[in-house]
Design a protein that fits this description.
The structure is a single chain. The protein is built from 8 helices and no strands. The protein is mainly alpha-helical.
Length: about 120
Amino acid sequence: VARATQRGAWLAREGRAEDAVRELHDARQLAPRSAEACCNVACAYYLSGDDSTALYWYGEARRLNPRGEVAAQAQAFLEQRRGRADEARRLLVAFLREVDASNVAVLRQLGKLHMREEQWSKAAG
């Protein structure tokens, strides 16, 4: 698993996103219950420009590990990018309520989302 993951990360850094997707799928096959492996696949799809498939894999990562910060933030980011700010907000608020109410990174992302939506009173906390 580690070798395939490292190779996938290297391929992604080299700008070979499609090759990274294949390699990271291989790694996920070796660890099908790994949320981290799903996040890696999602990231490779994002880098290849396939936001819809990336969103699916971040959702799978969250299904396997509902407490995963990276998957929650990435999924919210992609939802916002698709014009679904309400869904992004729901994901972030759910993470804060259910996992870690003082997570600075998630709070920052939620604040920025409120600012972009010009919800000033909510952005201020």
